[in-house]
Amino acid sequence: MADVSRRGLITGGVGVAALGAGFGAGWVGHSVADPADTGLVTPDAAVTGDETIAFYGDRQAGIDTPDQAHAVYLAFTLREFVDRERLQRLMRILTDDASRLTQGQPTIALTDPDMVRPPARLTVTFGFGQKVFELVGAETPAGVGDSFPAFSIDQLRPEFSGGDLLIKVASDDPITLSHVARVMTKNAKFFATVAWRQEGFRRARHAESSSTTMRNLFGQKDGTANAALGSDALAAQVWGTGDGFSPWVDNGTTFVLRRIAMNLETWDEVDPSGRENSIGRTISTGAPLTGSDEFDEPDFDARNDLGFTVIDTAAHIRRARDSDTRVRIHRSGYNYDAGVDAEGVADIGLLFGSWQASITEQFVPIQQALADLDLLNTWTTPIGSASFAIPPGAQAGGYVGEQLLG
Ligand code: HEM
């Protein structure tokens, strides 16, 4: 196979039978030689679907939580007749459903108990859009709904934008996830219509060590500079503790979801150094161009022999790093792959999720800097945008949102 050119394979210069025989022989030979390597034998120790993440608590789960392999974001539009009292009812129902499903238990009304296991670290996280605040006569947190600014790079589509109520469902198992998303949708149906539904994925659980940073579909390690889960730095960014910005409510936060299309066709044409220059990090290791390890601090002042900064003045990581260390966000990216058109052009991108105590103090300055100048903009286009206030967690017997709705 070594001397068979790639072009020859594509243009049919080599017979398909020969190709098939080559692959077939390799595969069979491999499996015969080493049966344990076929993937058919799975040690029990690798079965982790029964793992659960606590639902009740001061803060909602699914935020300072290791990102699961799959996520579905569901946004709803409240029906006309929904008032404060009906919204309370809806949130009581959904909270009860989520509290059970996340623990691998069926809901009260569920007819299909076999579908709720394994939970595989299922989390269900709720967010409120502007309409919810209007319904109860409360001030909408800055940056939620209409007060979210427009950016020059945006080409937003209504089918991926807005929404009165967000339900983020995430799990390592796509079957459980599909079922739970369906249950939540079904149980919200009387009160709300579906505004949009967006699905994303990360690396399959156990495909790599859990400490490995995931790759987006440009092949970049995505999430390196995030503060560690459970750290004080993350708590300050997301919950506004310490010197963080004040959130709209204690133990509450905000969430921004941007659907960002990635142009793989033109990205494919860029050489490796151009790709690395656009981000300011190497593709293979994720290390900054001024370092050798993924977690080395970028040196934004370092210059090359020609006197130019090693990290381009328009590189994504330079532009995204505000000089004020309080202006930080907690990013949670999920890849999306929505298929191809007849010409084979992929509809691929990133569901860019951002958690922060304050949208206007944290997310907006970063997004504004990137909209003003970012090499990555050559290949990326925000096509969806939605922002929500995330209420505190619920205690057993209570419901999510009761501080606002109760
Ligand atoms: C498809 C769009 C995007 C892609 C492919 C992308 C990719 C990346 C990559 C590869 C990194 C470096 C590794 C890391 O620290 O995660 C990074 C860093 C970062 N990105 Fe993005 N990003 C995108 C959109 C955005 C948006 C919309 C924002 C904010 C509004 C953002 C904010 C950041 C921040 C704050 C960092 C860390 C910078 C630092 O080192 O301090 N990114 N991004």
Q: Can you characterise this structure?
A:
The chain has about 400 residues and is an alpha+beta fold. Helices cover about 25% and strands about 20% of the residues. The chain has 11 helices and 8 strands. β6 and β7 form a beta hairpin. The longest helix is centred in the first third of the chain and has 18 residues. The termini are far apart. The chain binds protoporphyrin IX containing FE. The site of protoporphyrin IX containing FE has 25 residues, from β5, α9, β7 and α10.
Quick tags:
406 residues, 8 strands, binds protoporphyrin IX containing FE, single chain, alpha+beta, 18% strand
Topology of this protein?
Blueprint: H1 6-11, H2 16-33, E1 70-78, H3 84-101, E2 123-128, H4 130-135, E3 165-171, H5 174-188, E4 192-201, H6 232-239, E5 253-262, H7 264-267, H8 272-279, H9 316-320, E6 330-340, E7 346-356, H10 359-372, E8 380-390, H11 402-405
Antiparallel strand pairs: 1-3, 1-4, 2-3, 5-7, 5-8, 6-7
Helix pairs in contact: 3-5
The structure holds protoporphyrin IX containing FE (HEM).
How many DSSP-defined strands? 8
SSE class = alpha+beta
Order of helices and strands: HHEHEHEHEHEHHHEEHEH
Q: Give the number of helices.
A: 11
Taking all Cα atoms into account, the compactness measure Rg is 23 Å
Shape: globular
Note the beta-strand portion: 15-25%
Main beta sheet strand tally, sense and closure: 4 strands, antiparallel
Percentage of helical residues? Answer: 25-40%
Chemical compounds bound to the protein: protoporphyrin IX containing FE
Low-confidence segments? 1-33
| First and last CA, distance | 69 Å
Whole-number mean pLDDT: 91
Strand arrangement in the largest pleated sheet:
2-3-1-4
